[in-house]
Amino acid sequence: MSFRGRLADVAIVGVGSTQQARRLGTTSLHASLEAAKAALADAGLTKDDVDGIAARWPGPGGTVFQPGSADWAGLLGIHVDWIGDSYPQGVPAVLDAAAAISAGLCETVLITGGQAGVMEAEAGKVAKYTRPANEFVEPYGSFTSTQFALVAQRYLHRFPEARGAMAEVAATIRNTGSANPEAVMHGRGPYTAQDVLDAPKVVDPFTRLDLCLANEGAAALVLTTVERARACRAAPVVVLGGGMEWMRQQYVDPPRYEEVRTVGAKAARRAFSMCGLGPEDVDAFQLYDVNSYEVLRQFEAVGLCGEGEAGELVRERGIGVDGGLPTCTDGGVLSFSHIGWGAPTLKIIEGVRQIRGEAGHRQVEGAEVVLAAGAGAGAQYHNVVLLGPDR
Amino acid sequence: MSGVDVAERPRPEPSDLTRPFWEAAREHRLVRQVCDACGRGFFTPQIACPRCLSTAWTWTPSTGRGTVYSATVVHRAPYPGFTSPYHVVMVDLEEDWTMLSNLVGTGEAPVAIGSAVEVDWLELEDEITLPVFRPADEGSGR
Ligand SMILES: [Zn+2]
């Protein structure tokens, strides 16, 4: 089978990350720079090959007029031909960069980001990026998981039996992460679905084990033309297609289940139509597992089953590395790592490693097509990218 | 009542657009914008009607009665200002608009979707009163 798509003249040629840990004894900028260097080394390129940047700037200093990426050009000591500041991580950054490279605006794009040295100051609070600073939200104690919970509660009101499937999803992904030596939660567990249900409650219906981590680390990518990528160190992973969907600003108006349950469905259809593939062609799903319900919802949104059917789907086919629908094969943001605005990029890195066949003990045999996703119903936006081998 | 920790609770910081909402709340009136051109009610506040983009609209009183669209109980407060457990609800008001809020005056058990509720007022001592909701009284007209 050969893999072509509308953006397949662009490849991810370098991936890099720092250690992922509860706390890193460094700063967000140091960690993001380390990840960037690792991604360039992985590609066999240097900073002087970079002519496009998509990256947040965590400080110190900077972002006087333009946000982020221009500050990085200064730090790296390079002039660039393109910056992507609109959503400089994860799926949108990859799609924006691929479009820019494909259109000839630049040739080689660096994407980097993450967080470090920030979680200690958050003692007694949830992570800052999960506290919507909006006057109609914050005074009611509605943090991001609460907004997702309000969607999940409506789903469970209609499909109460799905609670068991949610628990199985959380246990399976956490067990996948437990076996990953690079995961923050390496060696924790194994967990059963009952362990998930019995864990301390956080916000109904979610217990602590239904919900993702908040930790430290950084992640980076390098994209270039597939032609150039073929001369690089690692096998190119091409961008087969993608789609983005944004309903409104997240965490201001509360999410209505009937509206948000399908967010990402159109993005997935667009991604598949760009390369002539369908959801059954996907070998691994790097879904955005911010909570156990989202995994079910995203299977419904990408078109693998109908509304309320995802519980049965994941039970029948299995979402472990050896299952019929390998999902979050690094352990996801539930168990591997969630590094704030860097987390969406981790999904792409795991996709690349699977397609290169570099995933070691967690390798999905014969993985060719990988779907990676970012954000979900509670956030009222969702993005999808399809990655594949260069052939 | 669980959930109330008035001193530490984050205060809204009204803008020119949203100040009338909070001033009305101070007087125990629940209001939302209603479009003068097409009649659509909308919340959270916007400078124009999201349906027809008219910038002519009027802050209009609500009965404060509605039903629970979705509800959750927070067992671990995300930041100071809340005593767990407490209720976060989405309320569909009878004039066809929706508000995120807290449910007070009930126990720790989750409240059922579809329950009748009515507005109540949480005084934050200074210049801010938060509209919250409590279970509707028996025979309150619903
Ligand atoms: Zn109107």
UniProtKB/TrEMBL annotation, chain A:
Gene3D superfamilies linked to this entry: 3.40.47.10
The protein's name in its UniProt record: Unannotated protein
CDD domains, per the entry: SCP-x_thiolase
Record organism: freshwater metagenome
Signal peptide (from-to): none
Single GO term (MF): acyltransferase activity, transferring groups other than amino-acyl groups
Native organism taxonomy: unclassified sequences, metagenomes, ecological metagenomes
Domain Thiolase C-terminal: 264-388
From TrEMBL, chain B:
Pfam families given in the database record: OB_ChsH2_C, zf-ChsH2
Domain ChsH2 rubredoxin-like zinc ribbon: 22-57
Gene3D superfamilies: 6.10.30.10
ChsH2 C-terminal OB-fold domain boundaries: 59-121
InterPro entries (UniProt xref): ChsH2_C, ChsH2_Znr, NA-bd_OB-fold, Thioester_dehydratase-like
Family annotation (SUPFAM superfamilies): Nucleic acid-binding proteins
Name listed for the protein in its UniProt record: Unannotated protein
